[in-house]
Fold each of these.
Amino acid sequence: MIVSEPRADIAAWVGSRIGVTFSPPYTALAEVRDGKIIAGYVFNMWTAHDVEVSLAADRLTKGLMTAAFRYVVQTLKCDRATFRTRADNIAAQKSLVRLGASLEGRQRNYFGDCDGLLYGILKEDFPHGFDA
């Protein structure tokens, strides 16, 4: 089941897995199985054309990915989503590429102990048949 509330619990779950704390305002989506979150998105830093998206997942489904990008494109009316990940998190980098994201830059010491990599995905680049 895909849910958007309680958003603070979703944000705490995502944040605990990626090592950040989210401060409002933000929105969130998660997939819940057997009463437990298995994947979640947090959306913040909305600028009308872009939104920063944070993602954590034990298991990421096509249904949640589609719901997240429908939210970005149809609800927020954004043309793109921005992701940041640790330069040493190879699994996250591979996942972002599978989502259709492109590497756009490096932010030195963004995470304090590690560089951050900046990825972006345009609505027309979403690879799973999403008709934006």
Amino acid sequence: MNRRFFIQKLLYSLQTVLLMRLAHPAVLPAAIKKMESDKLHYRPLNGRSLRDIALRKEHHGNDRFISPVGIPRVGRWWQLLKWKLSRNSFNRYLKDQPVNRIAIDWEPVRKHQGVSVTFVKHASILIKDVESYLLIDPVFSDIYWFIEDFSPFTFDPRKIIKPDHVLVTHGHYDHLDKSSLRLLDKETHVISPLGYDAVFQDLNMKNRTRLDWYETYRNGDSSITFLPSNHWTMRNPLRGPNRSLWGGYMIKTAADYTIYLMGDSGYFDGFEEIGRDFDIDLAVINLGAYEPRWFMASSHMNPREAVRVFKELKAAKLMIVHWGTFRLGDEPVHFPPVDLKRELEKEGLLDRLVDIRHGETFFIR
């Protein structure tokens, strides 16, 4: 289904539910009552091991994947419509959202001899690992005409350093963007979760590694392990959610520096296990689209939860992405780093933050 048809379907659904709301005021509250009464937005592991769950493939269903830690997504369309029809409590701040035009000087990255992390935009980052380059969730421009891009490039995205590997965390359009991937060399090695064959066949990108949770791709002294997260994915509303898998990556670089890319995730009680299993130097946490909590908590963590996760991971440093480009939640695009710093300061952890913005690079070693 193309994007235009999806937009038309969504607008029609919004119109329909608005008429229902006016004619039958009790219908919509009844549909979302259970969700709002739930206080916990994940299913506790209760001592069970994420690794054991993955090895037993409990996340594999008959025709789609199942989240062992996520709450059931029954009634989410009604909740989405209720959210879109409700008043945004951040409205008075939206006019202050800055547009930051991104220019990136790639020459210092090329000259650096060790490991570096460049925050490209949204959830897209470029990791240099000595002589190898990894590009994560490449999104170079707008994803829908009706969603403003607050961090547009001032340069041709084809000027980005050619990656050796592209890592995709999941299939939502703000992470898996075909128009951006088409700008890359078709021979680029793609690492993705299971279930995206049709997407990459359409792109004629055949050099691929498909990973299930806790599976690892190794290349010389480096390794990339795919890990679970509390999220979901969907590209075609008619086929429904979770036809493909989602997650994050643990990257052990050739320079012996470990970077955890969380991917999109709501909070859940599995991060302590990940922190025990891996010695993490830098945790890259996706922070954005976290308001309103009654709707977003099951998919994205807020700043307070991000700090909790950082502590549970026992990582040395923290960096955040997934903010400043698209307003996908109620909060303004520039709020996440401000809110995060406030929470880090409460815990005495502000000095552990890698405080970089779009287009900037963290040079590590």
